[in-house]
């Protein structure tokens, strides 16, 4: 049996039946979660909550619960992409007992159950008042002031706002699924690194042995598969050229291939394992830490870290396409810190709150990041996720049901790629997601949303 996390009471419904006022209570206070579960903010939570209200225990379900059953609500990517067809807006009007003092926390029990339309110690619970506006009066059908409901749905998964829709990947349906090394030896079936060319026309992928594969992103066909012969390989494209370089992590050994000439070639050594768009900023991973280097491989003293950061304790660094921002993750700073490379000035922090960030890719606009997190996290936290740089809030999470590892965002802003596995020795899979959410609802919802047919429940296998 699941534990209720939140409760809700209907305070009022507008005359046009397009909006309602709700009071939402936190009803579960896990001691290990400092401050308890947060008050909800996102449309995904409120769609799930309204569905719970509509899914009556006795009698015919109300229209919203007749559109689909609970299964698509469990698919984080689907519900994030499609909540906008049901929820038009959410506004929090007021909060109570938030944030809590230590004294208030000590007065609370661990969980509270709904009994006879209320919760024990209701006046002590963390709570917020909201206005929720829906796209159709049908989604509020049957609700009346005073109705109450408990729910097991969590919050914090995010939901795209209208301004996000053209610029974030559609995690609900990958355009392509690729297994680049399925036929390889066990130790060579997983992706070690991947990177887009600067024009976004190609994606290069390395395995853990000695094979390089390059895909043409116009149709995602395999253009090249070659053995490179470099031990402990590191992948990097030559800035501005269709030349991919494979270098040794330990020494200056390098192998390069020119896609335009369709031939192995020689190019000047490309220092580092991470670079900005033009190569102005570069970094190489040490054991431990990160060293910032210039185009010749020497120390780059133009990069200034924010106060409190030590390069020897950095775990990850990435750069925005315009090279005005760097994204830092350190052993002592698990949040993602956004700073100017040349001054160290901090422009924001993104607190994912869900374990160590494993990999990070920055959208060409610099407005979003795509991340994966610790493989030791829960199933939900193993999924890829999109976050806003401004404000640091979540936009959406994927639903691969696999451990996501590596990510890449194409410089032409057309594709986001997530590499994932189902186990330590299982082959890698690349899910290729188009950037931009669909402008129309999916076919299974279209007729119901425009009112051309009665609500009908859509079941997902």
Provide a short characterization of the protein structure.
The chain contains six helices and 30 strands. It is mainly beta and 461 residues long.
Strand order of the largest sheet: 3-6-2-1-7
**Helix segment count?**
6
Beta strand % = 35-45%
Task: Extract low-pLDDT stretches.
Answer: none
Distance between the amino and carboxyl termini = 22 Å
Structural class: mainly beta
Count of beta strands:
30
Largest sheet: 5 strands, antiparallel
- What is the overall pLDDT average? 90
- Give the helix level as a range of percent: under 10%
| Structural Rg | 25 Å
Shape: elongated
Describe the structure.
This protein is mainly β and 461 residues long. The protein is elongated and about 75 Å long. Strands 3-6-2-1-7 form a five-stranded antiparallel beta sheet, with helices on one face. Strands 8-30-29-28 form a four-stranded antiparallel beta sheet, with no helix packed on it. Strand 26 and strand 27 (394-397) form a beta hairpin. The longest helix is centred in the first third of the chain and has 12 residues, at 43-54. It has helices at 43-54, 63-67, 71-74, 76-82, 102-107, 443-449, and strands at 6-13, 19-26, 87-96, 114-115, 118-119, 127-134, 148-151, 176-178, 191-196, 202-207, 211-216, 221-227, 233-237, 243-248, 254-258, 263-265, 274-275, 282-285, 290-293, 314-319, 326-330, 333-339, 346-350, 357-362, 368-373, 385-388, 394-397, 403-409, 415-421, 429-434. The mean pLDDT is 90.
């Amino acid at each position: 049996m699941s534990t209720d996390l939140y409760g809700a009471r209907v305070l009022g419904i507008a005359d046009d039946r397009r909006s309602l006022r709700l009071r939402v209570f936190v009803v579960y206070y896990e001691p290990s979660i400092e401050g308890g579960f947060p008050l909800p903010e996102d449309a995904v939570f409120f769609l799930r909550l309204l569905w719970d209200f509509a899914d009556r225990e006795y009698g015919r379900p109300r229209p919203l619960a007749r559109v689909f059953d609970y299964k698509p609500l469990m698919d984080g990517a689907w519900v994030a992409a499609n909540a906008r067809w049901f929820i038009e807006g959410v506004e929090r009007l007021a909060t109570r007992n938030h944030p809590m003092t230590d004294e208030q926390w000590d007065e609370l029990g661990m969980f509270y159950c709904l009994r006879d339309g209320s919760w024990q110690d209701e006046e002590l619970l963390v709570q917020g008042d909201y206005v929720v506006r829906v796209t159709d009066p049908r989604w509020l059908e049957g609700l009346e002031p005073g109705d109450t409901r408990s729910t097991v749905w969590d919050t914090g998964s995010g939901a795209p706002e209208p301004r996000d829709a053209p610029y974030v990947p559609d995690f609900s349906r990958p355009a392509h699924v690729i297994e680049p090394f399925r036929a390889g030896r066990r130790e060579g079936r997983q992706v070690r690194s991947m990177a887009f060319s600067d024009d976004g026309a190609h994606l290069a992928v390395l395995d853990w042995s000695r094979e390089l594969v390059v895909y043409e992103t116009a149709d995602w066909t395999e253009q090249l598969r070659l053995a490179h012969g470099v031990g402990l390989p590191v992948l990097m494209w030559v800035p501005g050229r269709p030349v991919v370089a494979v270098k040794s992590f330990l020494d200056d050994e390098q192998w390069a291939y020119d896609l335009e000439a369709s031939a192995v070639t020689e190019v000047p050594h490309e220092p580092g394992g991470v670079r900005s768009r033009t190569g102005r900023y570069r970094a190489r991973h040490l054991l431990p830490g990160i060293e910032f280097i210039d185009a010749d491989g020497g120390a780059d003293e133009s990069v200034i870290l924010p106060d409190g950061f030590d390069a020897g304790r950095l775990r990850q660094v990435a750069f925005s396409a315009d090279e005005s921002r760097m994204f830092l993750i350190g052993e002592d700073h698990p949040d993602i810190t956004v700073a100017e490379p040349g001054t160290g000035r901090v422009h924001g922090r993104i607190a994912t709150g869900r374990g160590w960030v494993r990999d990070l890719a920055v959208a060409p606009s610099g407005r979003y990041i795509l991340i994966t997190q610790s493989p030791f996290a829960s199933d939900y936290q193993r999924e890829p996720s999109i976050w806003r740089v401004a404000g640091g809030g979540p936009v959406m999470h994927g639903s691969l049901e696999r451990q996501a590892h590596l990510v890449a965002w194409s410089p032409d802003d057309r594709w986001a790629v997530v590499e994932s596995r189902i186990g330590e020795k299982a082959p890698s899979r690349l899910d290729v997601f188009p950037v931009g959410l669909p402008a129309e609802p999916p076919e299974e919802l279209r007729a119901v949303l425009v009112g051309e047919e009665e609500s009908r429940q859509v079941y997902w296998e």
